[in-house]
Amino acid sequence: MAVLTASFSPPGASNGATVSASDTGDATAWNAVVVNGGGSAAFAYDNSHTRFGKALAAKMVSNAAASVVEWTTPYNGVTADFGRIYLYPSAIPSAATKFVTPGSGGVTLQIAATGALQIVNQSGVLGMSSTILSGQWYRIEWHFVFSTTTGFMEAKIFTSPDSATATETLTSASNLNNGSAGTSLLIGCNSFASWNAVWLQSAVARATAYPGPYPVSTASPVVSGSTPVGSLLTCDGGTWNGTFTLTYQWTRDGSNIGGATSSTYTTVSGDSGHNVGCTVTATGQQATNETATASSNTVAVGSTSSTAPTMMFGSY
């Protein structure tokens, strides 16, 4: 089954508009968007806090009632799930708040009034020592295994949201009764608690391994090699915040060179007098629609090297 994704910044969305189940864009369509409680409760697109060059994020405000987005049909029946969400809280919830709920067996990830991320299951509540603070981005990843006898839950929090290394991991025993399969996935405040406000971006669910971070370039690619026409140039790919699949596109004065898509490129006569560089694209570990690009330095290509003919002198 395909990985579910939601950037919370679909094409055509506008700042302040309510998130709608019809807003598919670059995401998997939501089956439902539920906002209860009236007053200031909301689930809307907002540009106050965004990441990865996205124009918008989703601003969730709960007023002592549910404020969630939900996948049902594409999630129903999964027996194991890896997922991820980025969040930016402006405050900590007033009471323990269910935040990622797979709709099966009474299990959930919740955030306590202390800011601690917690796993809730039939055995009780497992809590992290790390706490979420207001005013910064976090990344949360999860792993659910659904079973009536050997169910399992794990959660990871990344206080440096672009990092490949978790700040803390919370793991349940492998003996839970959390249902034979997931039925739906709710993301947002699914409790009778107030939470004002949280920005969400780049959700992933139904992956087959931990999704890891959204690709971010931490050091630009570097092109090296000789400058005359006919020389071999090499692009080192740069440095990224995780292990990603990298693809290459060589450019001439900023325009793509057709067919030049490997990590090396041999310059041709048409490159003479032009600047040749390389654009590297990193693709998300699980969500293939998550990509980021980084441009290399450019190399000024000169004409073909030549050596003057040797004159032979002698007596006859």
Structural class: mainly beta
**In the CATH hierarchy, what is the class of the largest domain?**
Mainly Beta
* Assembly context of the chains: single chain
Put simply, the count of helices is 0
Question: What does the largest sheet look like?
Answer: 8 strands, antiparallel
The SSE order reads: EEEEEEEEEEEEEEEEEEEEEEEEE
Helix content: under 10%
How many independent structural domains?
2
Structure explained in plain terms:
This protein folds into two domains: 4-207, Jelly Rolls; 217-300, Immunoglobulin-like (Sandwich), CATH 2.60.40. Strands 1, 3, 4, 6, 11, 12, 13 and 15 form an eight-stranded antiparallel beta sheet that branches. A seven-stranded antiparallel beta sheet has the order 2-5-14-7-8-9-10, with no helix packed on it. It has strands spanning 4-6, 32-35, 42-46, 57-62, 67-71, 80-89, 97-101, 108-111, 116-121, 124-131, 138-145, 152-158, 168-171, 185-189, 195-207, 217-219, 223-225, 232-235, 239-240, 245-252, 255-256, 264-266, 275-283, 291-295, 299-300. Residues 306-316 have low confidence and may be disordered. 41% of the residues are buried. The radius of gyration is 25 Å and the shape is elongated. It is an all-beta fold.
Characteristic key phrases:
eight-stranded antiparallel beta sheet, Jelly Rolls, 42% strand, 0% helix, Immunoglobulin-like, 316 residues, seven-stranded antiparallel beta sheet, disordered C terminus, elongated, mainly beta
